[in-house]
Amino acid sequence: MSAHGHHPGSADDRLGKVYDAEMFRRLWAYVRPHRTLVFVSFVIIFVLGAAQLVQPYLIRIAIDDHIGTRNSDGLGILALWFGLALLGEFLLRWLQIYVLERTGQNVVYDLRTDAFAHLQRLPSSFFDRNPVGRLMTRVTSDVEAIHEVFTSGLVMILADLVKVIGIVVILLAMDWRLALVTFAVIPPIIFVTLQFRGRMRSAYRTVRGAIARLNAFLQENVTGMRIVQMFGRENESAEAFAEINAEHREAQLKAVVYESSFTSLAELVAAVALAVLLWAGGYGILAGMVTFGTLVAFIEYSAKFFRPVQELSQRYTVMQAAMAAAERIFGLLDTEVSIKSSDGAIPVPEKLAGDIRFENVTFGYDDERPVLKDVSFHIRPGERIGVVGWTGSGKTTLIRLLVRLYDVQQGRILLDGVDIRKYRLRDLRRSIGIVLQDPFLFAGSVGGNISLGDPTIGPDRVKAAARAVQVDRFIETLPAGYDERIRERGSNLSVGEKQLLTFARAVAFDPGILVLDEATASVDPRTEQKIQLALATLLSDRTSILIAHRLATVRDADRILVLHQGELREQGTHEELLVLENGIYRTLYALQATA
C-alpha cells in the first residue's frame, strides 16, 4: 500500500501543452458518425436564434406603433406572434437539449468503448506503471467531461455566436450609434479571456490529476482494507488520504478563484456597458434622436447580447475542463500497443505438440536489473516440467514471457519450432492454460467464470470441465448450481473453491500446454488431494509446467529446472538433483524436510 498518491514526475504531471485545434480534430473523428444529429442541432440553433431575436423587435413595434400612438389596430395580432415566438422558443429549446444530449452520449459511448478496448491491448508493463484508480478516472470521469462539450460547451458557444451575430446586425440596423455603445464591451471581454485562458487550462489539468490520484488511492485501500484493519493502519491511511484530498481541494479552489474572477470581471464589464447604454439612450430620447420603443428593444437585445458574454466564463470553464480531459484520454489512446500480433502472424496449430524452447533469453522489468539472464532450456512435447528456486529467482517471469505478457529483451522463445512472436497473439494465449496461486474470479455466474463468456464453450463443456477437476459436486450443492452468482473477486467462496473453479476454467479451454504457478500453495490438504487426482487426467498427453515452492509438488516431474538469481543453475529429475554436492535443489529440499 502506498503512503502517497502523488509522485512527482508521473505521467499526469508531465503532460505537455496540446493545442485545442488538435483536440477538436481528434474529437471530430468521434462526432463524424453522428453528423446527422449535429446537422439537426445546427438547424435548431438558427431557428431558435430567430425565435429569440424576433421578440424584442415585436416589442419595439408594439411600443412605437401602437402603445405610444394609442393605436390598438393590429396589437392583438402582434401579441399572437409574440406568443408563438415564445412557444417556438420553448419547444426548440427542448428539442435542442435532447439532440445535444443524444449526440454527446453517443460520442461518450464510442470514446469510452475505444478507451476500454485499447486498455485491454496494452502490455503488462503499462499497468505496472499506472495505478488502477487513475485508469478508472480516464475511462469514467475524464470521458464524461467530453460530454459537457456538447451540452454546455462548444455547441452552446456556437449557438451564442449565432445569436450575437444576429443581434449585431439588428442593432446596427436600428441605431448604429447605440450599437457602438453596446459593442464597446467586446474588447475588454477579449482581453480578460486571453488573460485567464492559460491559467484556467492549467488549473483544471491539475484538478483532474488530483482526482486521478484520489481514485487510485481509494481503489488501492478499499481493495486492501482487510490488511489495513488487521494491522491497525486506519489512522495512517486516513492521514495519507487527507493529504491527497487536501491537494484536490487546493487545486479545485485555485480553479474556482480563476473562474469566479473571470465571471465577475465579465459581469462588471457588461453592467458598465448597460449603464452607458441607458445614459446614451435616455439622452437620445430627450434629443428626439431615439424612440422609446427603440431604447426598450435595445435594452432587451443588450441583455441577450450580454448574457452569452457573461456565460462565456461558464462555457469557457467547461471547455478548459474538457480539453484537459481530452489530453488525458488521447494520451491513453496514443499509448503504444507494444505487444501485438505481427503483420502476417500465423495461427497456432490446432494440434499443438507442445515443444517449448528458450534460447539465450534475457529479460528485466527495468533496464538496470535483469530478472532472467541468458536462460536456455528445451521442453519436449508431453513432458512434465517442474520449476523451482528461491523467491525472486524468475520462475513466474518465465511464464509471463511464454504468453507474451512481456517480450524478451534478448534471445527468443520457440513453440513447436516457431518464434512465439510470429504467432497470432490471441491464438498463442488460448493455447496455454494457466492456473495462478491467487485465483481470480469475476462477478457473475459460476458457469460464466469457467467459460469466461466464450461462445465455443457451451454448458456441457463447462460441466465436463467441472467433473474433470471434481468441483461438480460442490457446484451442484449451490442453490442455483452453475447459475449461482459469484460476488466480486469471489468473496463468497473459500480459497480452495475458487482455485478448483480456476482449474475447471483451464480444462474448459483445453490448452495444448498447461502451467500451474504455485496453484496448490494456498489450498488445504483435502482440496490439494482433489487437485492432485485431477492433475493425473489434466496432464496426460499434454506439456505441463509446474512452478512450486513446495518441492513435493514437483517430485514426480519428468525434469526439474532450478533457477537462482535469474540463471538456470541445475536441471534433472528429483533423484538426480538430490545427489548434486552443494546443489541448490538439495539445499531447498533439506530446508523443507527440516521444516
Characterization of this structure:
It is a single chain. The chain folds into two domains: 21-333, Up-down Bundle (ABC transporter transmembrane region fold), CATH 1.20.1560.10; 356-594, Rossmann fold. The chain is 62% helix and 10% strand. The chain has a six-stranded mixed sheet, with helices on both faces. Strands 2-1-4-5 form a four-stranded antiparallel sheet, with helices on one face. A two-stranded antiparallel sheet has the order 7-8. The longest helix has 53 residues, at 234-286. Residues 1-19 have low confidence and may be disordered. With 595 residues, the protein is an alpha/beta fold.
